[in-house]
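The following block was generated as part of the benchmark described in Methods. Ligand: FE2/S2 (inorganic) cluster.
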Amino acid sequence: MSDSHVYTPYHPRWLRRRVSTYWWLQKWSYFRFILREGSCLFVGWFVLYMLLLVNAVGKGPDSYARILEWSAEPWVLGLNVVSFLFVAFHAVTFFEAVPQALVVHIGRTRVPGRLVMAAHYMAWALASVLIAWLIVGA
Amino acid sequence: MADHITLQVARYRPEQQSDITFDEYEVPCPKEWVVLDGLNHIKDRLDGTLSYRWSCRMGICGSCGMNVNGEPKLTCATFLADYAPGPIRVEPLPNFPVIRDLIVDIGDFMQKLVRVKPWIMRQTEKPVSEGEYRQTPEELDEYKQFSMCINCMLCYAACPIYGLDPKFLGPAAIALAQRYNLDSRDEGASDRMAVLSEHEGIWGCTFVGECTKVCPKHVDPAGAIQRYKLTAALESMKAIFMPRGA
Ligand code: SF4
Ligand code: FES
């Protein structure tokens, strides 16, 4: 119990159980949560890699060629594949959570959660198309 | 289907033992019997010393919450037959101190509940002669879901954050704060803000989401918390960019 230490006559001997160190292995949802928390490192790496890539592109064809070569090394490739999967996992679980956090009203009616989620996926797709167009088309 | 099922029931007799042990009982298992019926059968016919709480036996009072095979459940709404052929393990709700057998102490929640001021607050009350505070069905819908909470504590039992850090305000208390914040008749949102947005308030939640899954009343406490996070973030942005209060 928290801060109140009220004296109770014949106070029962309460049993306080400890949370097991391995609580996160007890349920799939707990494990999924820990996976999300732990995989932040990979997401961080993904961002860093993007910055390195943009930086290399900015510096000219030579450095771009060099980073491509480096990226083809098995361990970098492996790391990037794993990171990509985790980034996708984060994106999907994030979009899943959006309707719970974001309640949108149009006039007096509440927009259904699925639509809010769909709008986010649309925005994601649009942004991807835009970037693809910038890189490939322009 | 077998006509009996075994219940492995957690026992804690503070004057005799220092940890939980399990006693096994065979109870009848007709298809309409819930876990609570099994416990009542034990208490009435097999072992009168078993202690547990219940009242309404219809999912209203919120007092019969226990862990059934590791999942927090209302035992009056959990059918024995769903677990056939058994055995079924019945334990007190985790994350709360056990007083005896299946009875836990929820005093911690009761104190937290008062801190979020779960009642309608007005800046100024209008005189009775001016009539009631009226509300449209749409306005009711805004908070109705959060008002369905029966304080059964299943969400606290499912929340690993509350288990690890008992200072965390927890799912139901925050959902109930939101129940009043979103009520068109209430003007107390700013009074609740300090408690809700402290570190042990909404920010303690890391969105495991189990509270929403186990809630028997579809309150969606995880949603209430995430929604309030957004509100609190917007408020603090406002405070930075519009310090004079727009
Ligand atoms: S939010 Fe749901 S699980 Fe939590 S106390 Fe209320 S009714 Fe029970
Ligand atoms: S006995 Fe009242 S909710 Fe189960």
